[in-house]
């Protein structure tokens, strides 16, 4: 399997706070990897470092052999942040959000070509949002919003998709639909890194899993990673694999590593 994402000895600091250290792993093409860890373990920081939107103090990140900036510029990687990081009041329609995935290479006019419009409509169909494409993005449910941003990544043709808590606050139908879309993207050769607190569903969609606590504690199959002794190491307490791991540590929610 060809390596698409390579992270080596990555370290990130926020002032004197060490958010990540000695973080090393690789992901191959056509795979789905779950990222799990308690609040404050550095999951969101890891995503942003992979995207290159925050600086690495140590180590390197390569996406398809390119540094993060070039990978973003070439449309190789797409990032769907947590819902609270997005201004849902912004006056933009669902179709316009998806069309943003085609802006690369359009120039300052951003005038969509016929092929771009086809890609947008195809992406909307994939996530079953065609009938809601005219609506303002903030008027959608939580699950529908997440599907819209996944559609943007599909329209973009991204080879690497980073999803930060896509199942948080969504209904079961949207979660099932999102998982199905991610599996389809995997079958087409895309690589997906998805953080989740829903440990119970991890086995249903992930090929492997990363256990994070400021560094990678383990990278293996979901079944191996979710062993009780590994979860104790990551969360500092007993956690059931069928539980919501986000409830394990409220205080760390305020840390800058998450």
UniProtKB/TrEMBL annotation:
Keyword Flavoprotein: no
Keywords from the named record: ATP-binding, Nucleotide-binding, Transport
UniProt cross-references to CDD domains, sorted A to Z: ABC_Metallic_Cations
InterPro entries: AAA+_ATPase, ABC_transporter-like_ATP-bd, ABC_transporter-like_CS, Metal_Ion_Import_ABC, P-loop_NTPase
Domain ABC transporter: 5-239
Pfam families noted in UniProt: ABC_tran
One function term, GO molecular function aspect: ATP binding
SMART domains in the cross-refs: AAA (SM00382)
PANTHER family linked to this entry: IRON TRANSPORT SYSTEM ATP-BINDING PROTEIN HI_0361-RELATED, METAL TRANSPORT SYSTEM ATP-BINDING PROTEIN TM_0124-RELATED
Family the UniProt entry places it in: Belongs to the ABC transporter superfamily.
Name of the molecule in the record: Manganese transport system ATP-binding protein MntA
Lineage: Bacteria, Bacillati, Actinomycetota, Actinomycetes, Micrococcales
Gene: mntA
